What does this fold into?
Amino acid sequence: MGLTASVLAVDAGNSKTDVAVVAADGSVLATARGGGFRPPVVGVEAAVDTVADAVGRAFAAAGVSSVEHVSACLANADFPVEERQLAAALHARAWGADVEVRNDTFAILRAGVTEPLGVAVVCGAGINCVGMRPDGRTARFPALGRISGDWGGGWGLAEEALWHAARAEDGRGVDTELARVLPAHFGMPSMYALIEALHLEEIAPVRRHELTPVLFATAAAGDPVARSLVDRLADEVVSMATVALTRLGLLDEETPVLLGGSVLAARHPRLDDGVRELLAARAPKAVPRVVTASPVLGAALLGLDRAGASGEAQARVRAYYEA
It folds into this structure.
C-alpha cells in the first residue's frame, strides 16, 4: 500500500483538467494534466474518467494510493444538486475518504486571496461570479447564460458583435466598423458572406470566439458600437461583484475583488479602467486585482483550508505555483 497524502486538488474546466497531490506541509508531490471536463456532453462517468486518467498519473508520480481529502473545483457544477452528484461520482473512485466539490470559479477566487474571503468575477468563454467568507458562507449565481440572466463572456461578446454588424450592413442598425472588420477577419467580403459561412458551418462554430479580440481592437480604435459593448461588459462585471459583496455583508468592508478568465486577465485598457471606475463608485471598499495564478492552486488551498493546514503549508503550495 502506498503512502497517503493530504490533498488531491482538481481543477477541471471545459478545455483541460489540472490535478495536484499535496502533502500536509504544503509540498506539491506531483501534478498532471488531462482533457476537458464536460459532463453535459459526454455524461458524468465519462467526464470523471478524464479526471481519473490525470489522477492516476499524479498518484503514480507521487507514489501514493490515496489522499485524506479530495478538493475538486469543477466546471458545470452550477447548482448544489450537481455538486452532490459529482461528489458522489468522485467518491466512488476511492481517491480519498473526504470529497468536496465546488464550482470551478471558487478555485480562481481562492487562488487570489490569502484567506477564504473575497469575491471573484470570471469572464472567459462565459461569465460567472462567486464570493466566500471564512465562516463558510458563499454567494453565487447559476451562470447558465441568458436563461439565468447572464450577459457577457467571450462567446456572448462575439454574438453581440455579429448582431450589431449584421444590422449595420443591412440598414436596420447604426453603422459600425464591426460590419467590415468581422468578415475581414475570416477573409470574407461582407457580413452577408460571413453569415452564410457561419450558418453552413463552412467556418467552424468554435471559431466564433476569435471575434472577441477583434471587438476589443475595434473598441480601442474608437468605434462607438464596439465601445458600448465593452462598457456594458464592465457594468455587468461590477453588477455581479456588487451583488455578491452585498449578499455576504462585505460591501462596507475592505474586500478583495478578483478578476479572472481570459477576457479580464487580458487587461484591455477600456474594460479594465471601466471596471475599476465603476467599482470605486458602487463598492468603494472593494480592492480589485487581476488573478493569473493557476486555478488548481485555489483547489489545493481550499483542500488545505478544510484540512486545517498551517499558514506555512499554504504559503508553501502558493510559492510552488507562483514561482
In short: The CA atoms of residues 146 and 156 lie 9 Å apart.
